[in-house]
Amino acid sequence: MSDTRRRVKVYTLNEDRQWDDRGTGHVSSTFVERLKGISLLVRAESDGSLLLESKISPNTAYQKQQDTLIVWSEADNYDLALSFQEKAGCDEIWEKICQVQGKDPALDITQDPIDESEEDHFEEIPETTHLVELPPCELGRLEEIADLVTSVLSSPIRREKLALALMSEGYIKKLLGLFRVCEDLDNREGLHHLYEIVRGVLFLNKAALFEVMFSDDCIMDVVGCLEYDPALVQPKRHREFLTKTAKFKEVIPITDSELRQKIHQTYRVQYIQDIILPTPSVFEENFLSTLTSFIFFNKVEIVSMLQEDEKFLTEVFAQLTDEATEESKRRELVNFVKEFCAFSQTLQPQNRDAFYKTLANLGILPALEIVMGMDDLQVRAAAIDIFSYLVEFSPSMVREFVMQEPQQTEDDVLLINVVIKQMICDSDPELGGAVQLMGLLRTLIDPENMLASTNKTEKTEFLSFFYKYCMHVLTAPLLANTAHDKNSKDQSEGSAKINPVCPDNFQTAQLLALILELLTFCVEHHTYHIKTYIMNKDLLRRVLVLMNSKHTFLALCALRFMRRIIGLKDEYYNRYIIKGNLFEPVINALLDNGTRYNLLNSAIIELFEFIKVEDIKSLIAHIVDNFYKALESIEYVQTFKGLKGRYEQEKDRQSQKLSRYRRDARSLDEDEELWFNDDEEDEDGEAVERRMDEEFSDSYEKFMEAKKGAANGANSAKSAPIPAASPAVPSNNSSSSSVKTVALPATPVVKTALVGLVDYPDDEDEEEDDEEDESPRKRPRLSS
Questions:
Q1: Fewer CB in 10 Å around end: N or C, the chain?
Q2: At what angle do helices 584-593 and 617-631 cross, to 10 degrees?
Q3: What is the spatial distance between Cα 611 and Cα 617, in angstroms, rounded to a whole number?
């Protein structure tokens, strides 16, 4: 059968009879060797993982609804549905289901409701062939009971029948009564059988059984049975831990008895799943899915009940922010709020939104500001976790709060500055907390999640706030560890300078690497604000001091920062780099690295390769003019020769362009000659210099020289010798792309595109008319 794929959503029916979305993927009908039959497979469209694998059983009733929905049940409490994006896809899969079952695709249900006798026949078969009879609940029959429970786990039908039998006869409580007897008699063999029985009953995966087993009067006996694992020499002491070691702390007294019972039950069931039960094997993965659901829905119920109790939460936050609250009490309150937020992750999105808005209204952010500044490490860690929940939920909510703070408080106690200081002062050698906080800061300053409202732009306002009040706190460790570099110019150039202040401490180097990572993110996303900050603080020079660090990862972070700046191809940055000669520390690092072929070597060469490929002319000219002699010996890559080639090509191009503008004296015609003569009346000509704009600083000097002219009479036409064109002499840093000239006075006889600027300081007889306002000095333009 051909393997056709259609886009579908997979749904399962939960215990509350609500449909849960299990994911979106593509469905196909394929023969699965392991299942020995045609099966429905759904693979996730995101990562290709298997969302559903269901064999098309001949006796399963499939139903088609609303043209795009196929629903069926694989067990009493396991209903499935496929919701198709297209009707055509639904029809195709429906035809294949009907083909396997031998039914007419025109029907909307595969099991014919009219043929009741046949249906009854099929229902009678399991009753007779798979009937489960439970042995009497006696000490002598425990081994038999254990064998029975273990044997049915491989058969879904027999699991169902056993679960029904256990429920109908009140069998669970009888078994737990035997457990108490065996423990009193120290009957180890019986206790080992009871371990197998209780573990097997949990693997039946039935919510109705869990309700009995996890009730207040049964759960501790269930835990007791699970202590006697036959594989252990001595039993575990789980009950002792749950009753004596684990203490239930009520930070604020809970008056609702149902809520208290639900909290106790959830904690104990979570303990059974996480601590007592062994990690399920591949074949047992689905055996405890209902147990997971049981815990999940308990948590949802707890959060909902607490959220509805307004007095309780109000009291929590009142005590949390009260200066009179004892430190130990505050620690318990913070841990409670952390657990509360963790439980909220189980809520549906709309309910989670309401939950966090409730916390915001109660003052969660001002409270965090207080507890984050406490000395207690556990409290600070819990506060960071709470802050992460809030930032992930709504960065805008946090930004809105912090932008209102400068009106009410000093810079040092701003929430973001408190967070930055926690990152900088993290005492963990691996900086686990700092890494977490750095990720949160990046989320807060990421323009991608900033909203633009009708009245204001969040991005502009928040970034202006951040760079005004917070950026100096973030960069303080970086500037402190590179402060000496201001005096580096006084040191002898060319000597390999090993900086004694450059951080050799591993933890400091890790911190600086985190700060550089954040600054690199700013370069990429904040353009204007970070550019102004870098220029004002000469930040790149300070960062490049870290190229001397013995920690290669830190040198690479500094290089990555420069690479991101150059990657913007912004001429403001390029001029800043050239003016500060900021390639020197990078090239020194390359030369100091020698012939070692490592990541630092590759990263530096990639930087120069990028400049070459992108043909960044100003940087190419600077590198070749200043560093080529040091780099020309590197021949294992063609990068530097390529840079030299680009430089020579540009030089040739400029020379060719210049040659098009060069003038010979003989090219001036008579009209131009007359104009020169009129302007030179009774005067000696003097040397004329071409004056160039600063933007074209590498142009040519002294372009044309005028020769002496003699007057022939008062009214006769003056004939001055035509100036001879002297060879243009390129300046040392010539790389301009065009030559600047000036416009001549308006006259119909001007035919040339380029004439030197002529200035006659003694010519006071000229007419002072409008043409004087339009003098060549005042109207520069680019030659065509």
A1: C
A2: 40
A3: 8
Distances (CA, A) of 58 to 99, 473, 778: 10, 70, 96
Contacts of 257 (CB under 8 A, 6+ apart): none
What are residue 64's DSSP bridge partners?
A: 70
| Integer Cα distance of 743 and 296 in angstroms | 82
**Which tokens belong to 317?**
């936050």
Q: Are strands 729-730 and 700-701 parallel, antiparallel or unpaired?
A: antiparallel
Task: Please give the CATH architecture assigned to the domain spanning 4-101.
Answer: Roll (2.30)
Inter-helix orientation angle 471-481/415-424, to 10°? 30
Amino acid at 784: S
Q: What is the pLDDT of residues 394-452, one digit of tens each?
A: 898 899 888 887 666 666 678 899 999 989 988 888 888 899 999 999 999 998 888 76
What residue ranges in 634-690 does DSSP mark as E strands? Answer: 687-688
CA distance 654 to 646: 12
CATH 2.30.29.30 residue ranges for the chain: 4-101
Its sign, for the CA torsion 425, 428, 415, 543, is: positive
Three-point CA angle 680, 683, 689, nearest 5°: 70
CA dihedral (195, 199, 204, 205) positive or negative = positive
Half-sphere exposure (Cβ direction) of 39: Cα atoms closer than 13 Å: 17
| C-alpha span between 451 and 399 (Å, rounded) | 11
- What distance lies between CA 304 and its chain's CA centroid? 31
Q: Give me the phi and psi of 570, to 5 degrees please.
A: -100, 120
DSSP per-residue string spanning 85-123: SSHHHHHHHHHHHHHHHT--TTSSBSS-TT-HHHHHHHH
Beta bridge partners of 70: 64, 82
- DSSP classification of residue 244: I
pLDDT tens string 366-392: 888 888 888 788 888 899 999 999 999
